[in-house]
Structures are given as structure tokens and as C-alpha cells.
Design a protein that fits this description.
Elements lengths: L9 E6 L1 H18 L5 E7 L3 H10 L4 E9 L12 E4 L9 E9 L3 H11 L5 E9 L12 E5 L5 E2 L15 E4 L1 H4 L1
Parallel strand pairs: 2-3, 2-5, 5-6, 6-7
Antiparallel strand pairs: 1-9, 3-4, 8-9
Bound molecules: inosinic acid (IMP) and magnesium ion.
């Protein structure tokens, strides 16, 4: 979907399809360089990271393995519950692996902080984080994020994998919603 398809629900477009693709390509080039000669496993966090995983993986020039996890930290509202539960675990044994967690967005950082510690406890060689978006002003924990696409203002955003009540994930851009959508 593009901005015309959701015009009535939209407040602002924050990052266009082109801007997102450009930044993902830059991150992929950096990841290719940083992991040269190593075997990388990229782990996508369902469901939000589907778009960034698909674009990042295809922008890489190196072989990678791909696996998926589903965790829950949000209901259908817009506030982090702080409670993380594994809904779907990895199929891969992480012993000795270089792992890159791929996320759509880091808000409070609670989900990723928990997930990074969880994966590290499985005997990984390394665990780093790549996120398409981050809200620096919303951080509640200190989290070392190696690859960040774009920083966002502390507002609820949708698109490019990010949903509001399971809608808007298939927007090709990231934007904010008009107030009437939440009411
Ligand atoms: P955190 O634990 O607060 O960092 O929340 C991370 C998760 O919350 C993300 O992976 C998203 O699924 C969801 N989330 C956080 N902010 C937004 C937003 O602005 N729009 C949609 N989903 C969000
Ligand atoms: Mg997510």
C-alpha cells in the first residue's frame, strides 16, 4: 500500500520507501564488511521484522542463514507491557554462532534487552542488533544497538512491518496516524 491508499488515516509520512531502501542498503554494506569470512545467522522478530528481514537479506552480498522468533510484549494497544513471552522459538542451535537480531523498531528497548540476554545464554559467539527504526527518547533500558536505520520522534508509527491493531503493516513507508484512527 502507498500513501494514497491510506490517505484518510494518515497524519505524516516520516520515511518514504526510497529512504528506507537506501538506508537498508547502507546497513547491509556495513554488515557484509563486519562479518566478512564469518557465518552469520540473522534472526527476525515476528511479525514486525518481516519487511526489514526480506529487504536486508536481499541487500547483503554474503551468505546468511535466516531464522525467526515470535515474542509478545504488546497487546493491541500502544504501550509496552514490559512482559516478554516466547510464542515461537528458533529452530537453530545457537552454540558458537554469530547472531544478528533483526527488528522493526526499538521503543522502550525492553523486548530486545530481554531477547539479547536470552540468546546470549545459549552459547552464541556473538549477538548484535539491527533495527530499522529506534525511538531514542523512549528508551527505558541501556541497550547496545550496532545497526540503526533511522531514529524517530517518540510517537506511535505504522508501516513497513509496524502495525496498529494488526493493520498498516503492508504500507511501503513509515508514518504517523491521524488521531481519529485511535478514537
Ligand atoms: P519495546 O519493548 O518497547 O522496545 O517494544 C518493541 C516492540 O513494540 C516492537 O518490536 C514493536 O512490535 C512494538 N512497537 C513499539 N513502538 C511501536 C510503534 O510506534 N508502532 C508499532 N509498533 C511499535
Ligand atoms: Mg516487533
Amino acid at each position: 500500500m502507498d500513501s494514497h491508499d491510506v490517505q484518510a488515516d494518515l497524519k505524516h509520512v516520516l520515511y518514504t520507501k526510497e529512504q528506507i531502501q537506501q538506508r537498508i542498503a547502507e546497513l547491509a554494506a556495513q554488515i557484509d564488511k563486519d562479518y566478512e569470512g564469518r557465518e552469520l545467522l540473522i534472526v527476525g522478530v515476528l511479525k514486525g521484522a518481516v519487511m526489514v528481514m526480506a529487504d536486508l537479506a536481499r541487500a547483503l552480498h554474503s551468505h546468511v542463514s535466516m531464522d525467526w522468533m515470535a515474542v509478545s510484549s504488546y497487546g493491541s494497544g500502544t504501550q509496552s507491557s514490559g512482559v516478554v513471552r516466547i510464542l515461537k522459538d528458533l529452530d537453530t542451535d545457537l552454540m558458537g554462532k554469530d547472531v544478528l537480531i533483526v527488528e522493526d523498531i526499538i521503543d522502550s528497548g525492553l523486548t530486545l534487552s530481554w531477547l539479547k540476554t536470552n540468546l546470549e545464554s545459549r552459547g552464541t559467539a556473538s549477538v548484535e542488533i539491527c533495527t530499522a527504526f529506534r525511538k531514542p527518547d523512549a528508551a527505558k533500558v541501556e541497550l547496545d544497538v550496532k545497526y540503526v536505520g533511522y531514529d524517530l520522534p517518540n510517537e506511535f508509527v505504522v508501516g513497513y512491518g509496524l502495525d496498529y491493531a494488526e493493520k498498516y503493516r503492508n504500507l511501503e513507508f513509515v508514518g504517523t496516524l491521524a488521531p481519529h484512527v485511535y478514537e
